[in-house]
Write a sequence for this structure.
């Protein structure tokens, strides 16, 4: 018996397409919006403090970031004109951008930050359009290493905040506040129940502030003076269209941060698809593209406003995993309430009153978790020793450059300053090393043909030549030929049922490794998903159906079948063991 709404199936109470009651949706939306409000304001405050910008710009940055985050959260849930992931994804100011944003604000103020964020948004929209190509460039090893390098650029700012106390404060104030806050964050993350763990930022920051108040360094005067409702004076910074040396020096770092944000958006969109439905289905990468496009559109808005770019927060995943609610309706409520909270200055004033050691301790723990997640992605990848070697080397190159421990006398030239950021240096290093592995590894063999059963002979000749080159035995060669034939027939039969039969091209790329071969079939097609059809096939297919027979044979000969559907291409990847 299937579970309906409100009846957990594998822990899921409300799937993405189901509608919880409006009162329950409002309560959940309010809770998540309040939780997300804290890190958004904290991240914005850290950047403006580090860049020595306060007053009108700070108020405007908080307001704009919350409004843009709320709007993008609604678009992610509603999916407007193909933009959005059609899932509950909570968006807000990016913590990964702290380091580069401070450099931009220090070098050219909000106007320079604005043009760099706009460039990042355009770059991200381009990545969304060509996501099918990105899958080969941003491997798990690359994305994990870039995520770890984010911590290298942000952690020094967290350490600096630990000692940011008034000169008249007691000597024990900063260490004590830091220890209490860090202990609260770690204790809640390690041992608190799942529902209480979601409130970690609020509880830990509150305990830190109470400790700071005991030392007399927590001033609530700005909170009392702030109003309950208001709109800050518009502080649109304009655009620094001079494109001077500062822009070109910082652009590579911003683009690498955009890659990190995109990788996180892709990962969160995939996880939310899996958590948001009751039936087992393949990932719809067209929705993943939509999620990345929504993030890019939000980044463009952030650039126009002159504030930090956005990225996905884990609140949506926590809601789906914690209490089994993944309904898009809740996402709309979260976004709307988040926008409403932007018009409550008292909330922003309360967060801005948090003392430096409290913020610093929280940032150090959270950024440490970002580093650990990045390393986990690296070590869970299938690349083995080679991948770990290039990840470790690239990471320490980034660390050395960030702290000017590697040839510091050569980092002052204009050309070298483009790589003087740890994220940029480490990112360039790992991309070059990955390119080296690609160029010196087993060569990919390619062919192209019409997507038609008439191409079976050409495909068979290609596969036989590939197997002969790498010394496949008779049994392995037979499996490789049979799996390739059934993959082509399955795609061709779907194409015949569609509206574009006969006018599509199929590209086949084959790569050999020590245990087998990977064949990739890519075509611009509107066909259904083969992965889903194999799942629905069951153990007893319809023997009169040629489609079912092809799918069953494909499942038999190939050790794995993956079908990734994008707006502009379908990619079927099969693996055949030797």
């Amino acid at each position: 018996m299937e579970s309906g709404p409100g009846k957990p199936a594998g822990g899921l109470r409300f799937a993405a397409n189901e509608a919880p009651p409006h009162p329950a949706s409002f309560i959940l939306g309010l809770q998540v919006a309040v939780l997300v409000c804290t890190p958004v304001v904290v991240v914005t405050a850290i950047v403006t403090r580090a860049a020595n910008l306060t007053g009108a710009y700070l108020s405007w940055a908080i307001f704009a970031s919350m409004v843009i985050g709320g709007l993008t959260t609604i678009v992610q849930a509603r999916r407007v004109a193909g933009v959005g992931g059609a899932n509950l994804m909570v968006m807000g100011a990016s913590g990964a951008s702290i380091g580069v944003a401070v450099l931009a604000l220090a070098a050219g103020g909000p106007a320079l930050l604005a043009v760099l964020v706009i460039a990042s948004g355009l770059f991200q929209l381009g990545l969304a359009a060509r996501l099918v190509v990105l899958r080969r460039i941003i491997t798990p090893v690359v994305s994990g290493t870039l995520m770890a390098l984010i911590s290298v650029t942000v952690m020094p700012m967290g350490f600096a905040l630990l000692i940011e106390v008034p000169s008249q404060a007691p000597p024990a104030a900063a260490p004590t506040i830091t220890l209490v806050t860090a202990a609260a964050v770690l204790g809640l993350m390690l041992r608190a129940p799942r529902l209480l763990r979601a409130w970690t930022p609020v509880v830990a920051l509150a305990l830190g502030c109470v400790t700071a108040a005991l030392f007399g360094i927590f001033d609530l005067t700005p909170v009392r003076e702030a109003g309950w409702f208001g709109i800050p004076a518009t502080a649109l910074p304009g655009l620094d269209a001079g494109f001077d040396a500062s822009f070109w020096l910082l652009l590579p770092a911003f683009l690498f941060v955009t890659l990190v944000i995109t990788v996180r958006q892709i990962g969160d969109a995939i996880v939310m698809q899996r958590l948001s439905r009751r039936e087992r289905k393949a990932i719809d990468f067209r929705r993943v593209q939509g999620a990345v496009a929504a993030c890019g559109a939000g980044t463009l808005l952030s650039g126009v406003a002159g504030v930090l770019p956005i990225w996905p927060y884990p609140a949506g995943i926590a809601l789906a995993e914690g209490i089994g609610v993944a309904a898009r309706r809740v996402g709309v409520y979260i976004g709307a309430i988040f926008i409403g909270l932007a018009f409550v200055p008292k909330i922003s004033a309360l967060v801005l009153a948090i003392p430096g050691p409290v913020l610093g301790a929280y940032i150090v723990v959270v950024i440490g978790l970002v580093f650990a997640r990045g390393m986990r992605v690296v070590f869970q990848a299938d690349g083995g020793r080679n991948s770990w070697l290039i990840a470790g080397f690239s990471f320490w190159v980034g660390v050395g450059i960030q702290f000017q421990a590697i040839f510091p006398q050569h980092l002052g030239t204009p050309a070298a300053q483009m790589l003087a950021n740890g994220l940029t240096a480490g990112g360039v290093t790992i991309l070059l090393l990955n390119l080296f592995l690609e160029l010196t590894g087993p060569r990919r063999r390619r062919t192209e043909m019409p997507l038609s059963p008439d191409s079976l002979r050409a495909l068979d000749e290609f596969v036989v030549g590939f197997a002969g080159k790498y010394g496949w035995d008779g049994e392995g060669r037979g499996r490789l030929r049979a799996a390739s034939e059934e993959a082509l027939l399955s795609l061709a039969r779907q194409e015949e049922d569609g509206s574009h039969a006969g006018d599509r091209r199929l590209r086949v790329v084959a790569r050999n490794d020590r245990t087998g071969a990977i064949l990739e079939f890519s075509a611009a097609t509107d066909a259904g998903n083969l992965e889903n059809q194999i799942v629905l096939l069951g153990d007893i297919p319809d023997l009169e159906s040629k489609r079912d027979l092809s799918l069953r044979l494909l499942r038999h000969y190939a050790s794995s079948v993956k079908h990734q559907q994008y707006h502009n291409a379908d990619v079927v990847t099969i693996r055949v063991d030797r």
